[in-house]
TrEMBL record:
This is Type II secretion system protein L. It comes from Alcanivorax sediminis. It comes from the Bacteria. Inner membrane component of the type II secretion system required for the energy-dependent secretion of extracellular factors such as proteases and toxins from the periplasm. Transmembrane segments: none annotated. Keywords: Cell inner membrane, Cell membrane, Membrane, Protein transport, Transmembrane, Transmembrane helix, Transport. It is a single-pass membrane protein. Residues 50-142 form the GspL cytoplasmic actin-ATPase-like domain. GO terms for biological process: protein secretion by the type II secretion system.
Length: 381
């Protein structure tokens, strides 16, 4: 809020706060501080459109501290008025208490009139200003203590520590000087026309607008995550694109899987004519292979032991295989081949016999490019 409009309210003659109360106003960092009224400052702040910050002179509140046990601290709001009753001139029921943890069992307390807080909110609301923070000058400038702040109309705020402060005129300041000894001699001198606002913009004190006085969030006002919004939008966009990409990839995989299944079913039906492929193709194919390898025919011989020698011979032979048909009932292979001449057929037959298979040329016929024949292969026995 370093660029927010800033109002500094100070107490002159202890008059009740109202719209005509004197106020110092600075519209933004670096601009001149002008002496005006509370209503005038709120109206000027409304024109800037930014969040309004109001700093109260310590003389308008009561700064003190109390020591609380752990049990009392758990009921801080209820015990505070009774603990401070002897230290306050006003009735505790008319005050608003803001407390924060100090050192050890100590709690730092700010007591402020409820009417004052209500007036601040009311005047800001009437002017259309966006009041977001109310603080106390001594709390903001704690690092500058002890200090003397020059106020308008010849007044001065003397503060030696958080709970020791006084507003006096120039004459009283000179008379009180010896009472403070070297404390005021080394005090920070702050001019309300310029340096005061520079320091207030560099430091922030505890927020008094809490609980029932918490600032109202205006429509369209950026929330706490406003500065992270671009990053959140980027992260959400990346997540959305990743999800879309995964869904597209999954769809493509499903299409590819369905295509592969259709091709496999077609291939299965070509390998095993008359056997309709099902969706459980893997189990169906394994069952088919199991039946082939478990044996067929009366002797209980198997298909694969018969196929191995045939494959070895065909790999080395010069004949061209055309078709391979297995008769599970008869437990034999019918091998259709094409050769240049009958001698190649006999060579193939002899090679199969050397592998231990019972092979014979079932039939053959001459063709334009050589000889076509069917060779019957059986297990010996």
């Amino acid at each position: 809020m370093s660029q927010a409009p800033l109002i500094y309210l100070y107490d002159i003659d202890e008059l009740p706060l109202g719209g005509g109360s004197p106020a110092l106003f600075q519209s933004a960092r670096g601009s001149s501080a002008v002496l005006t009224t509370l209503d005038g400052a709120c109206g000027a702040a409304a024109e800037t459109g930014g969040p309004l910050r109001i700093i109260l002179c310590a003389s308008m509140v009561r700064l003190t501290q109390v020591e609380l046990s752990r049990k009392q601290a758990r009921h801080l709001d209820r015990v505070m008025p009774y603990l401070l009753e002897e230290n306050l001139l006003d009735s505790p029921d008319a005050l608003f208490f803001n407390a924060r943890k100090g050192e050890g069992d100590e709690y730092l307390v700010t007591a402020i009139e409820q009417d004052l807080m209500n007036t601040l909110r009311e005047r800001a609301s009437v002017a259309g200003a966006n009041l977001q923070s109310v603080e106390v000058d001594i709390e903001c400038l704690a690092s500058a203590l002890p200090m003397v702040v020059q106020l308008p109309e010849g007044k001065n705020l003397i503060a030696t520590r958080r709970d020791a402060y006084l507003v006096v005129d120039e004459h009283a300041l000179n008379e009180l000087g010896p009472l403070f000894g070297d404390t005021l001699a080394d005090a920070t001198q702050i001019d309300s026309d310029g340096s005061l606002f520079d320091l207030l913009r560099q430091h922030q004190g505890p927020q008094l607008m809490t609980g029932a006085y918490a600032p109202r969030k205006q429509s369209g006002q950026p929330g706490a995550l406003a500065e992270w919004r671009p990053l959140l939008i980027l992260a959400a966009s990346i997540l959305f694109l990743a999800v879309v990409g995964l869904r597209v990839q999954a769809w493509r995989y499903n299409v590819a899987a369905e295509t592969a299944l259709a091709d496999a079913m077609k291939q299965y039906e070509q390998l095993f004519p008359g056997d309709k492929a099902t969706s459980a193709l893997t189990r169906q194919f394994q069952s088919r292979l199991s039946r082939l390898s478990s044996g067929g025919g009366a002797a209980g011989t198997s298909f694969f032991p018969m196929l191995v020698p045939v494959a070895e011979v065909l790999k080395k032979s010069s004949v061209e295989p055309k078709r391979l048909q297995y008769d599970q009932r008869q437990n034999n292979l019918l091998l259709d081949v094409s050769a240049k001449d009958y001698a190649q057929l006999e060579a193939l037959q002899n090679a199969l016999r050397e592998q231990g298979a019972k092979a014979s040329i079932a039939n053959y016929r001459n063709a334009a490019q050589g000889v076509n024949a069917r060779i019957k292969v059986e297990q010996p026995g």
